[in-house]
Amino acid sequence: MKAYLDALIKYAIDNELIDPCDETFVFNRLLEVMGLDSAEGDSHKIKRSLASILEVLTDDAVSRGIVEDNIVARQLFDTKLMGVLTPFPREVRMRFNQHYFESPRSATNWFYKFSQDTNYIRRDGMAKDLRWKYNGKYGELDISINLSKPEKDPKAIAAAARAPQSGYPKCLLCPENEGYAGRMNHPARQNHRIVAISLGNEQWYMQYSPYVYYNEHCIVFNSEHRPMKIDRAAFDKLFEFVGCFPHYFLGSNADLPIVGGSILSHDHFQGGNYEFAMAKAPVETPLTFKGYEDIDAGIVRWPMSVIRLTGEEYDRLSELADKILTVWRGYSDESVGIYAETDGVPHNTITPIVRRRGYNFQIDLVLRNNLTTDEYPLGVFHPHQNLHHIKKENIGLIEVMGLAVLPARLKDELSRLQEAIINHEDIRSIPEIAAHADWADEIMKRNTITSDNITDVIQQEVGYVFQQVLEDAGVYKRTDEGKAGFLRFADFVNTK
Description:
The chain is of the alpha+beta class.
């Protein structure tokens, strides 16, 4: 094992995680983690990827009974190894600030690479993801089947069920995750580092998502475990962040169930260095808001209902955004099925996204409503049942902007579906893909399918489904009736 431990140390030195003078100290720490008193053998050079080095070391630990042989236990162990190589938080924050002094882009470039070098973002996992583009009527949508987020095998699920429950850390976003050893029902974070930033005179932190749904996918989160809330203060923080990091956008999930993200209990935003289809979409209907004639406003040509505001002074933009939010919270229009509340339960909120446009600031306000009915128990403005075979989950910030994050199950299902179509099998008799049968019938009617084009056809048809998903999630439909309803709301804002 000595050669592999040496290779791991060389990797850490080459990527400036440790200093050459740390070599002996780190070697001894790695022995401790491996449960070894010593490691004999030649120090011949091994040219392997980080993932393969960690796999060999983990296999050895499993063979000696140091680690259980399941996916979660293995990841807990290889993260523990990487934690030995990861600098202390004080050093990471000092380096980030030094780079920021050079430029904000230099700081984020360094921190993003660092988060990959420590294996917090697993490069081998990113490579597994399936990604393609769909050029639809609203622009080029991004489609992804994310496979980098590990799925638990049966042994890991059983081990997690046996594990003692703990309330620490309170959630996956809490700053207490930094350096945490993890357990069977909570991921290890010894190689996880966060950098401190100030927003709204409060302590916030920034990290990168370990699953990287898009380039430099960052998460900005409050130091306190408190619920998400969309309000004027949230808008101000979004603007303040992009003022400090002008090459990044920053947005927030909505603060209500169904239309919000997966973690509503911890106040946070998501951003990064990527331009989504929604950001590229043009304004198709200009608007003017009384008292805010200095702000360019309009309805965006997008399947969801988006008001875009652009101007030089972000205080003014934030003020108008807050006015629109306040009016929307209490707005109902029964003619288009919008109810602000039912039985005292509020339904209206907003998904905001902020970016820079040269010297200007820009905010997109996506109107959301989480009403449910007997016909649509998962949400009226949510993917409808005929699309659930592809996308059933909530439509959060990332999907709103035009990136489909599709469930990992689709990798095998779509592969099997292609095989069944080519071989003229009865899809309804195949349990694992029977849910796709009606869809497959439509695909075969619309396309001339061969073994050469089947993959491309299926990918484009998935993109078309996602386009429909976004249309279902739009509160104002792209019909004459829907457009008239949207304009009624804009006019109503001007009466307030």
